[in-house]
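Q: Convert this sequence to structure tokens.
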Amino acid sequence: MDIRFLATFVEVAKTRHFGKAAENLYLTQSAISARIKLLEEYFGTSLFYRYRHGIRLTSAGEKLLPHAEIINKTLNDAKKALAEIDLHFLVVAGTPNAWEFSMQQWLSAMKQHFPEVSLRAEVMNNDHLSRQLHERTIDLAFTLEPLKSEEFGTSLLQESKLALYSTKEELSEEEFVSYIMIDWGAKAAEYMEKQFPETRRSHFRTSSVQIGLDYMLTNGGCIVLPEILAADYVEQKKMHLVKPLPELSIRLYLNYMRDVKQLGLSDYITFLKNTVE
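A:
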């Protein structure tokens, strides 16, 4: 049994609502339901009466609750105690496009400044990043948009203008069918459709910068990229600048828990923020 299931049980018992518990724990309601079901299977008994407009603990659930609360408190106390020691093992994570944009260079800079630190890096989506930051299973999260939580601190690390690039120096309207559409957000999509209506006929779309870039370099076409990411390819004449898009930009954000207690982690965050300044 996953020990976190007991924390889920305590939260459901406190809120008396699967949806509210899911919101507080940054999980989906189906994940909450699945955890409670597995917990009930583990103990071989029902823990909640489920009604149309709410839930309440069964007698078995009432007996389990004080034990679950003690275990949950003990684990939280252990986390706090371990968080007070100096941090030499750092777990960072970012979205795929944050990695491909420029996250690697920031980690390289930090490793050079703190050669003694051991790094572990993960790739995940925004929902998983938020959840694991709250659970403190990761220390820092790199994203292209700030993670939303009052418990998070967020710093802008880097910004780059977007521009339209192509494997050809000039593009005809028909050649916009070879436009490779990367998701840079609603504003960018709206701008491209307005300025270049032909891009609506795009035959290739992806959420990954690297997949889109590799596809274009292999098959030809045009694509919107951050200027700093495209610079080397332009210099090598593997692609050409078609049009700057000064109205559009991409940003890399650093996200972390505000109540940082690890001395080492505070140093890493301060270094990254000062590097920007």
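The mean pLDDT is 86.
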